[in-house]
């Protein structure tokens, strides 16, 4: 009897002590779990989605990862404590049995309730701290996206012709490559590179001033996050495309820009020197060299105005005529996927029915089947743009009769094509393009090495630019 009473008393005493110890471990379990979760310096989501060489803002992703990891760790701490206590049941005695069972029950019930309570408090604290940052982030991200969308800002590589949202940027201090330099877990308006250099993360804060490379070919770019206007020059071999390009550049720099109060600039000093040297050679009567297939880098010019939402970066593609001999060659030219306007050059000197109108018979060139060239181009363009046969191609196109000063005809280009019974050419453009217009011009012509200037090129380039971008109208 005395032994039974003694055992009961020991059991009750053990239970009281077990409950006390269980409460203590229940209260400390969550904080132990917290200490186990705070050792990582980055969030797994940022590592997986971005993996940028920059210091991460804790209150963006990682605070909630730590929250969830802390709760899981705290539950594991409780489970571990219960398992450890189970080993003590091997010790005989009422005191030990009562203490262990009471402590296990306390940890299981109170410990889990305490974890839920601490999790809720932890969630409220990190959310309260994070909300201002999230509001600021969504506000800046919305303004940034609105600027990019309204300004039609995107990136186009002038080396490989790939299109992308923004290029990869290079830290000016250590040269680290930032592939996604935009508001996010590493900073909203600015971020700190791993070297400690603070760099901008938005267009608003001057991200475009950093050195950048193409995300596809990794070659250097200086696109400055402008709105691209891509205009390929189409035409057969020796139709005068390069001469037209030179004349268009000259008109844009010296005539059109001044008339519209535009500020013209170049990618860099080297590119400016290249373009000005070509125009200077043309002004001295030196004909341009023939464009070859290897010439794939476009002529680029920045157009700036206070009326624009964003700067414009003009891409003029001078394409070798051999590319239009085969439809498959046209399809390989990826810039047609995003082109904003087209200029189709027709050399009337190579049209058989126009021979009687040519003033200098020495200028007559080998006749070319213009209709076949137009068909090949239109079919390839429909395939590239995935336009159905019963739909119009929604790219504005200027059809230019070049070298018109060598033709004894004073009327409009459209009337001349009708005069020489080439209505088939007219209909091909009418039935395939929603916006088109016929022009005539004499771009750069060289007789006795004398520069003869241009006629009508300014009107052509102005029309195409206005159709390609609404802000330029």
Automatic annotation (TrEMBL):
Domain Double-GTPase stretches = 230-463
Task: Kindly give the Pfam families that the UniProt entry links to this protein.
Answer: DO-GTPase2 (PF19993)
Please provide the record's keywords in A-Z order.
Membrane, Transmembrane, Transmembrane helix
The record's section on PROSITE patterns has: ARF
Give TM segment ranges: 119-143
The superkingdom listed in its UniProt entry is: Bacteria
InterPro entries, per database record: DO-GTPase2 (IPR045528)
Q: What is this protein called?
A: Double-GTPase 2 domain-containing protein
- The organism encoding this protein is Clostridium thailandense
